[in-house]
Write a structure and sequence with these properties.
201 residues, 0% strand, Yip1 domain-containing protein, mainly alpha, elongated, membrane, transmembrane helix, transmembrane
Length: 201
């Protein structure tokens, strides 16, 4: 089921959204069948990249790596952040749906959030090579396609017209950017409380 949805979202998003809407899964089932499996990709990849593969800075030939403990801590926090972020985005969609006259069940809203973020979660595998410019370059197409999935998925999952779906999607996207900034602020605060990077010798 997971693989078929992933393939379908890339081949024919609108038709696949209709199939997803018919499932009516619970929050737990949605997490177990989709979110947990994909949410582990970025943390695991970055753990391997940061602690085992490493990276170089500028023209230096010195390979920098984080200690296993710090890399593991970052990976666990990333995993938790992904799970909380998807739930928060789904809850936000659920709350905002009242404004657009067609409130849907919370699990459906979480499903919309989870499946929309699929390309971003998949591209997380690039964390195995923790090179900033490479990861940013790879993330741009994934981000663009996630936004496209959001705009195509909202009208189907929320049961509204495409015009209202466009406005709804834009509001969700704006709120998502605010959430991203908030997460960055929390990251800076955690660094001040002792979670700054520690490099392996």
């Amino acid at each position: 089921m997971l693989l078929s949805h992933i393939v379908g979202l890339f081949k024919d998003p609108e038709s696949e959204w209709k199939k997803i809407r018919k499932e009516n899964c619970s929050v737990g089932k949605c997490y177990c069948s989709h979110v947990l499996l994909l949410a582990v990709i970025p943390p695991l990849s970055f753990f391997i990249g940061l602690s085992q593969v490493g990276w170089t800075v500028g023209s230096s030939n010195v390979v920098e790596k984080l200690t296993v403990l710090i890399a593991l801590t970052y990976s666990i926090l990333m995993f938790i952040s992904i799970l909380v972020g998807i739930f928060s985005m789904g809850a936000m969609v659920y709350w905002m749906s009242k404004t657009y006259g067609e409130q849907q069940a919370l699990p459906r809203c979480i499903g919309l959030a989870a499946y929309s973020l699929t390309p971003i979660l998949l591209i997380g595998i690039m964390g195995i090579y923790p090179i900033l410019w490479l990861n940013m370059l790879a993330s741009l197409p994934a981000l663009a396609y996630s936004i496209y999935l959001l705009y195509t998925g909202v009208p189907v999952m929320m049961g509204i017209s495409k015009d209202r779906g466009f406005l709804f999607s834009s509001a969700v996207l704006a709120a998502g950017l605010v959430m991203l900034v908030a997460m960055m602020v929390v990251t800076v605060i955690l660094w001040d409380f002792g979670l700054a990077p520690r490099y392996a010798n």
